[in-house]
Design brief:
The complex is a heterotrimer.
Chain A (H helix, E strand, L loop, with lengths): L1 H14 L2 H19 L5 H11 L5 H26 L8 H12 L3 H34 L4 H19 L4 H16 L1 E2 L6 E2 L5 H4 L4 H18 L18 H6 L1 H16 L4 H16 L11 H24 L6 H12 L8 H4 L1 H24 L1 H5 L6 H20 L2 H19 L5 H24 L4 H5 L1 H17 L2 H14 L15
Antiparallel strand pairs in A: 1-2
Helix pairs in contact in A: 1-17, 2-4, 2-17, 3-4, 3-10, 3-15, 3-19, 4-5, 4-6, 4-14, 4-15, 4-17, 5-6, 5-14, 6-12, 6-14, 6-17, 7-8, 7-21, 7-23, 8-21, 10-19, 10-20, 12-13, 12-14, 13-14, 14-15, 19-20
Chain B lengths: L12 H7 L11 H23 L18 H23 L8 H8 L3 H20 L5 H17 L6 H29 L6
Helix pairs in contact in B: 2-3, 5-6, 6-7
Chain C lengths: L4 H19 L19 E5 L6 H17 L3 E5 L6 H9 L6 E6 H6 L13 E9 L2 E4 L8 H10 L5 E4 L5 H13 L4 E4 L3 H10 L4 E2 L3 H9 L4 E5 L29 E8 L4 H15 L3 H10 L1 E3 L4 H21 L17
Parallel strand pairs in C: 1-2, 1-3, 6-7
Antiparallel strand pairs in C: 3-10, 4-10, 4-11, 5-8, 5-9
Helix pairs in contact in C: 2-9
The chains are: A mainly alpha, B mainly alpha, C alpha/beta.
Chain lengths: ~525, ~200, ~350
């Protein structure tokens, strides 16, 4: 423990150089802008940044990515409040109370409180990161091939269920399509080139980053640009700095939302969106002023933003300790860590303990940056929303092309980006969510190699996949998730619930994101 | 100009919710469309499963048991997708996927007015640039052409006056030149990526 | 004036991005040097493996020394895939102007044709060797083996049962354990991982019994006491900084086993201009032979300095090529017989 604090102090000190502060500041600011603009999601921003920082020194590149991640998840709240359009899907819950507040003319207040929520959420999540990551890394050694196989399935199944609330079947299909995409190229065990058909470029399979740039960049651009509709921009006229009284009044909600958000970030496949929704639902359930929720409640706004910001450090925990991403942007971060030779996993606390604390320090610095930008630069930042799409999008596309190329210096990756962009666009039009697809691409190799390796270790025996304690918990959750997606099981459950408890609990955590 | 501020504070929510359709695909497709989706998925799953079955099995010196072979996992995944495709197919049939009366209306609504035209332009511009120009023409030239064309195509109809159009062409050219040069310079000289 | 606003806004975004990027880099100074070849732009080294692996780390250390010598930036391009053949083929197809080098494990250049992966041979390259990485066999600290003799006995008692973690078919670890089992006439349970580091992790976790990967990939875990090294696959004992005592060589138990050495270094196309080769040789003599950075790296990661080039390097590597090509053929990974490519079976 003492050693951990010492590492943390060292991390903070080593980050506090003017150059680093400068990098954190611009990366966070860019993240806020990306998060703010509808059509540029956190995932896209991170992916582009990951390809652009490819040739930078590792710790600098990771620092830029983390600042951008924190900034983007926060930035989405600006447009959610102003336009009722979450700039990044994670902020959908923020719009529920943020937009009504804006309509009451309290734009500045809403922005200020969202900022405070984001900062406290991030800090609570970061504390969890600093204290739990070393502990979890040690526990992560219990995760062997059998557990990793189930974790991969769990990520795809949960993400498929949560991102396609009305039609979980399509979410799961997207996830399994992603898993199949990951199968292309040489396999780990025999180096057999799957689906390569003699093309040498295909031997290596599809690199995650070009696929991501395609699905989240090019496809996004296609769906944003196909409609000729423009947003409206208001500006903040009232005070932005929140009253301390307001913040103190809701401290319970802030802390509980922060912890809930972190937990949501921890679970593979759940991610920032759910962090916000679950925290929002939790805050409403506990609140003394339930009736205000949805009509412009400060408490609702602050807990939704605290929840989604807290899930950022939450999602970083499994990335570092298990090398399993909690959400799509976290998947990009994981890929970037590998690219820069960091090798996250159960041994990270042995191999690079100081680096873990450096990451903690990075998140802390980024949260200070959003506090400064969020409170002091509210009005100038809103100008970003005035950059017309037609001018911005061609630049984004050029960056998509260059970014895809820069990953491996080959034109093949540009074609991969184009192909997956077009496929992604049509899948999206056909109501397939994209997040499970991406998670599938990341988790595919993990599922493949751990299933076969587990069988190799046991000589073909299936039992260890089911009777090891962690395995049992994992497959039970997967089975329940599947059952809840069917038509008959929830009805049966409701019936039993009425019999046993005499009435349902109302809307639980999974409050459906209605419009998004 | 395109970014008119709507001062009356009563934005048209529905339209905006659509324009910000990030992951915002809500509602189900008409069962007629799902019919084809299901069919396509089932075929794709079957194809993957078949191709996996053709991969080396225990007859190869490197594979001792079936579960070790490279085709084992993709085969299983192919079967799962085949199953899911069939589920969608069955569901769409139960919801009346074969009824033809109201399809035409819904399908045209899906690809309603300005969208197909804009989409075709988008695909043409982006695919031509990234698929054909990159790697054949110098990066600077290709990017300049692409950015100029992109801005002209999409801003043209919102710029009715001839005077405005001249200004549009000039600003588009300036932006294109700036973009291509900055991106090229940064990557070539700072990140040491040799652009094609 | 309003019409100019969007342009101004976008232009400022573009310019700001550019400025930021420019600020992140400091320029190197250029002074005249005393080499026959003075590179006028940056040199690319293709590392055909992912960043952070043994190859990547070694080449990065060597590249920074060359950078110091030539006063020109040497850029590492990681192009993983195809057991290193994809990146190597890229370097092979780049113009032979001396500005694109290949790198990696030298014997691979000899055995790619056996695997039908790439049509090349040692004659296509000038080899500039930097370091040899020694494979060692390690087990979990709580394992029952006193020494490598116990491990061998267990292999013989339970053929095909002892699980051995390697970085996959055809990896160094795989070749080593196959050679051991060939010599001891027994079998083992081969468990593949997607790289040396995950294979090492699995032994720390207790999932597999032993790993014969490179010392450099195990050094951290050995220092932390999470792995116990039993034997080094070399002819001399091996020392690793921070680990007490020496790791005994394989010859203590199996004197006849010949374990190929993995030489890591930089390869320049043999049709590159003569002055490039001369310059590299000078750089090797002046900077690499007693490079402090490389020596520290070797001590920390259990490597051995091998700063050779020319005929000397080629002869060393040829021995490894022969062993590697044949063991790959024997385990069924290579389909083309090394005989067809005039690679004789080592005695």
């Amino acid at each position: 423990m003492y050693e951990g604090l010492q590492h943390l102090a060292e991390g903070i000190v080593s980050l506090a150089t003017p150059m680093n502060v400068f990098h954190i500041a611009w990366a966070t600011l860019l993240g806020i802008c990306v998060g703010m603009l509808p059509g540029l999601t956190a995932t896209l921003g991170l992916t582009l940044m990951a390809t652009l920082t490819f040739h930078m020194p590792p710790s600098q590149a990771i620092m830029i990515l983390i600042s951008m991640y924190v900034g983007a998840i926060f930035g989405g709240s600006r447009s959610a409040i102003l336009l009722n359009i979450p700039g990044t899907p994670a902020n959908a819950a923020v719009a529920l109370d943020g937009f009504p507040l804006a309509r009451q003319g309290k734009v500045g207040q809403a922005m200020g409180l969202a900022t405070v929520g984001a900062v406290f959420g991030t800090i609570i999540g970061t504390i969890c990161l600093a204290f739990f990551a070393p502990f979890l890394a040690e526990r992560a050694l219990d995760f062997q091939s059998f557990e990793f196989f189930w974790l991969a399935v769990l990520g795809v199944v949960i993400s498929g269920r949560l991102t396609a609330n009305q039609d979980p079947l399509k979410g799961w299909i997207a996830g399994f399509l992603g898993l199949i995409v990951a199968m292309a190229g040489q396999d780990v065990l025999q180096s057999y080139p799957r689906f390569a058909y003699g093309y040498s470029d295909m031997r290596a399979g599809f690199d995650l980053l070009p696929v991501l740039v395609g699905v989240f960049g090019f496809a996004e651009l296609l769906s944003v640009m196909k409609t000729p509709i423009y947003g409206t921009v208001k500006s903040a006229t009232d005070r932005v700095i929140p009253k301390i009284r307001d913040v103190i009044r809701y401290w319970k909600s802030i802390i509980s939302s922060g912890i809930t958000g972190t937990m949501m970030g921890l679970i593979p496949g759940v991610g920032e969106d759910m962090g916000a929704w679950v925290s929002y639902a939790g805050a409403r359930a506990m609140s003394k002023e339930k009736e205000k929720f949805g009509k412009g409640s400060y408490e609702g706004l602050i807990s939704a933003q605290a929840g989604c910001s807290a899930s950022v450090p939450g999602a970083i925990i499994p990335v570092l300790t298990l090398a399993i991403p909690g959400s799509a942007p976290a998947a990009v971060l994981l890929a970037a860590l590998f690219v820069h030779g960091v090798r996250p996993g159960p041994l990270i606390m042995i191999e690079r303990a100081p680096f873990v604390y450096e990451i903690v320090a990075m998140v802390l610095f980024a949260s200070v940056a959003i506090l400064a930008f969020g409170l002091l630069m509210t009005r100038p930042l809103l100008k970003v929303l005035e950059v017309p799409r037609n001018r911005l999008m061609p630049i984004i596309f050029v960056l998509c092309v260059v970014g895809a190329f820069a990953v491996n210096n080959r034109v093949f990756d540009v074609w991969v980006m184009l192909a997956f962009g077009v496929i992604g666009f049509f899948l999206r039009e056909l109501r397939f969510p994209m997040a499970p697809l991406i998670l599938g691409v990341v988790l595919g190799p993990i599922l493949d190699e751990n299933l076969r390796r587990g069988l190799q270790l046991t000589g073909g025996e299936l039992a260890p996949f089911f009777n090891r304690p962690i395995c049992m918990a994992l497959w039970l959750v997967i089975a329940i998730t599947f059952l809840l997606g069917t038509n008959w099981f929830p009805r049966l459950l409701a019936k039993t619930q009425t019999v046993i408890f005499g009435g349902g609990k109302g809307d639980g955590p999974g409050a459906p994101p209605k419009d998004y | 100009m395109t970014n008119d501020s709507n001062i009356n504070g009563e934005p048209v929510e529905q339209e905006e919710a659509q324009s910000g359709s990030v992951e915002a695909v809500s509602g189900r497709l008409p069962p007629q469309a799902d019919l084809f989706v299901g069919l396509g998925l089932a075929l794709f799953g079957a194809f993957i499963a078949f191709e996996s079955w053709r991969m080396p099995g225990p007859e190869s010196p490197l594979v001792r048991y079936v579960y070790e072979g490279p085709g084992f996992v993709p085969g299983l995944l192919g079967l799962v997708v085949l199953l899911f495709g069939l589920l969608i197919l069955i569901r769409s049939l139960r919801e009346g996927g074969l009824r033809l009366e109201d399809t035409s209306g819904q399908i045209t609504a899906m690809f309603s007015r300005p969208e197909p035209r804009r989409l075709l332009w988008l695909l043409a511009l982006t695919l031509l640039y990234a698929g054909a120009l990159i790697g054949r023409v110098h990066f600077l030239a290709g990017t300049f052409i692409f950015v100029t064309a992109f801005i002209l195509v999409f801003d043209w109809e919102f710029t009715p006056t001839p005077h405005g159009r001249i200004r549009l062409a000039v600003t588009a050219g300036v932006q294109a030149a700036l973009t291509s040069f900055v991106v090229w310079y940064v990557f070539q000289n700072i990140f040491y990526v040799r652009l094609p | 004036m309003r019409s100019l606003k969007p342009l101004r806004a976008t232009a400022s975004v573009v310019i700001a991005t550019g400025l930021v990027a420019i600020l992140t880099v400091s320029c190197a100074e250029h002074e005249p040097l005393d080499y026959p070849w003075e590179p006028t732009r940056s040199i690319q080294v293709v590392v055909p493996w992912a960043a952070g692996g043994a190859t990547d780390l070694t080449i990065r250390v060597a590249a920074s020394e060359i950078e110091r010598a030539l006063r020109q930036s040497v850029v590492i391009v990681n192009t993983p895939g195809g057991t290193g053949s994809i990146g190597t083929s890229e370097a092979l197809n780049a113009p032979a102007d001396g500005y694109t080098w290949a790198s990696g494990s030298a014997s691979a250049l000899g055995y790619y044709p056996v695997l039908d992966m790439l049509d090349t041979s040692l004659d296509d390259w000038h080899l500039f060797l930097a370091m040899a990485h020694v494979p060692i066999l390690s087990v979990h600290p709580d394992a029952d083996y006193e020494d490598f003799g116990d491990f061998l006995a267990d292999l013989e008692d339970r053929p095909g049962q002892v699980s051995v973690a390697t970085a996959g078919t055809g990896s160094t670890g795989h070749k080593v354990i196959e050679l051991i089992c060939q010599a001891a006439d027994t079998d083992y349970n081969h468990i593949s991982y997607p790289g040396g580091s995950p294979a090492v992790t699995s032994v720390v976790q207790g999932e597999s019994t032993a790993t014969p990967q490179l010392a450099s990939e195990q050094a951290d875990m050995i220092r932390a006491g999470r792995l116990r090294p039993l034997v080094a696959f070399s002819s001399e004992p091996l020392e690793i900084d921070g680990h007490e005592g020496e790791i005994p060589p394989i010859t203590d138990w199996l004197p006849d086993v010949h374990i190929p050495t993995d030489y890591f270094g930089i390869w320049v196309r043999s049709d590159a201009p003569e002055e490039v080769i001369e310059t590299m040789q000078q750089v090797w003599d002046e900077y690499i032979v007693d490079s402090e950075a490389l020596q520290n790296f070797a001590r920390e990661r259990g490597g051995m300095m091998t700063p050779y080039y020319g005929e000397e390097a080629r002869d060393l590597v040829w021995e490894s090529v022969k062993t590697d090509a044949w063991i790959l053929y024997d385990i069924g990974y290579a389909e083309t017989s090394p005989d067809e490519l005039d690679i004789p079976r080592p005695e």
